[in-house]
Design a protein that fits this description.
The protein is α/β, with parallel strands linked by helices. It has two domains: 200 residues, Glycogen Phosphorylase B (Rossmann fold), CATH 3.40.50; 181 residues, Glycogen Phosphorylase B (Rossmann fold, 3-Layer(aba) Sandwich). It contains 15 helices and 13 strands. The strands form three sheets. Strands 10-9-8-11-12-13 form a six-stranded parallel β-sheet, sandwiched between helices. A four-stranded parallel β-sheet has the order 4-5-6-7, sandwiched between helices. Helix 11 links the parallel strand 11 and strand 12. It is globular. This is Glycosyltransferase family 4 protein. One of its GO terms (molecular function) is transferase activity.
Length: 403
């Protein structure tokens, strides 16, 4: 069950769609309950069928709202709440309570639904923690840690995770945080992934997307994905302003995607008349193999304070693309650990554009090292984060809980 699924193009929708298809191909009988797409089209009146089959997976779309979450937090909360209650009603009156509910934190309080339904109807459930709420909401200034909403949510979470058949987290630091907060839980770590047969390193000279957008000659710093609230992207624009004065002709900063901070970033670039910074919307799925490999340096950013609470899914795409990684993240994050272990990039602290400037200047002065780091990134991806290996791990988890 997930609020987002194919044909949505968000990172979570892509991962969960691939997971469902992969598990179905491995012999599991997968049924998906989801809402209407929120990312697939700008036309929010366009609807997908209530029932359909996608690559062998049956999809049931329940009632949901599709307010633009980038316009306000309130609209996002309405979308989340409506989906939660629609899902509750759907599962409460579903005739067959056999099987295991896979409940990703999309929306973030979906694991609580599993706990309630386990008591009412006897469902077994496995939360998949993509982001650890309500603590992430506190770090993003949506909630107060001492407030009533936080305390009630945290109380419900404790019961949801401690009574789950098993809980999957997408990183070791997240697993550590979960167990520190809620005590001993049955957990398994399964990292997110990328499809290495689709996203492969591609020379910019042979990349039509790079050619179309003038990215072939200059060293290109690429950020592709959600311009969300837990990504420190303002520091990248500030660094671009400094570097434009010093090394204008050598650099391009290409942002691709949408999100709550995009308007702020565009405003910063416009205010400073930054010719080296450009913005594009999310690209069609068929163009992703080119757009995601159009840079020399891939930015992966996490705001300070969110370590152990989330793992950027775009990191796996970035290392699959074979670009050097500019990791804007604290040392304690999952991403920082991987970058340090594999020497596939440079880590800088959030809110320190001066460190970003230094890292990029190092690569400009040492292009061979930049390319070598990109090769190491692809190598560590192939060794540890290919899609099929991750889905095999999920299959093992399901065999364990259903056996």
């Amino acid at each position: 069950m997930s609020q987002f699924f194919h044909p949505d193009t968000s990172a979570n929708a892509s991962v969960l769609s691939e997971l469902a298809v992969g598990l179905e191909a491995r012999g599991f009988d997968i049924a998906v309950v989801t809402g209407q797409p929120a990312y697939a089209s700008e036309d929010r009146t366009e609807k997908q069928p209530t029932r359909e089959t996608y690559e062998g997976v049956g999809i049931r779309r329940i009632f949901s709202t599709r307010f633009d979450k980038n316009e306000s937090t309130a609209k996002r909360m309405v979308n989340d709440a409506v989906f939660f209650f629609s899902a509750f009603v759907h599962l409460l009156f579903r005739r067959d309570e056999t099987g295991v509910l896979l409940l990703p934190t999309a929306p973030p309080f979906l694991p609580i639904l599993g706990w309630v339904l386990s008591r009412v109807r006897g469902y077994e459930y496995v939360p998949i923690v993509l982001d650890l709420y309500p603590d992430l909401a506190v770090e993003l200034d949506y909630l107060s840690e001492g407030g009533v909403v936080y305390r009630v949510w945290d109380w419900l979470n404790r019961r949801a995770y401690r009574n789950a058949t098993l809980t999957v987290t997408i990183g070791e630091t997240m697993e550590e945080t979960l167990e520190r907060k809620y005590g001993p839980c049955e957990t398994a770590v399964v990292h997110n992934w990328e499809d290495g047969s689709v996203i492969q390193p591609k020379a910019k000279a042979d990349n039509e997307f790079s050619e179309e957008h003038g990215l072939v000659e200059p060293t290109t710093v690429l950020y592709s994905g959600n311009h969300g609230m837990h990504h420190d992207l303002e520091s990248v624009v500030e660094a671009a302003a400094t570097l434009e004065e010093k090394r204008d002709d050598e650099l391009r900063f290409q942002f691709i995607g949408e999100g709550g901070r995009k308007a702020t970033l565009v405003g910063m670039a416009d205010e400073q008349n930054l010719d080296s910074v450009s913005f594009l919307p999310y690209q069609p799925v068929e163009r992703l193999p080119e757009s995601l490999t159009s840079g020399d340096i891939a930015v992966v950013s996490m705001q300070e304070g969110v370590e152990g609470l989330c793992v950027s899914s775009k990191f796996y795409t970035a290392i699959a693309s074979g670009q050097a990684i500019l990791a804007i993240a604290n040392e304690e994050t999952e991403i920082a650990r991987i970058v340090a272990e594999s020497d596939c990039g440079i880590r800088v602290d959030p809110k320190h554009p001066d460190q970003i400037v230094s890292a990029i200047e190092y690569w400009l002065d040492n292009p061979d090292e930049m390319r070598t780091m990109g090769e190491r990134a692809r190598s560590v991806f192939e060794e540890r984060y290919e899609r099929e290996e991750a889905i095999d791990r999920y299959a093992s988890v399901l065999n364990l809980v259903s056996g």
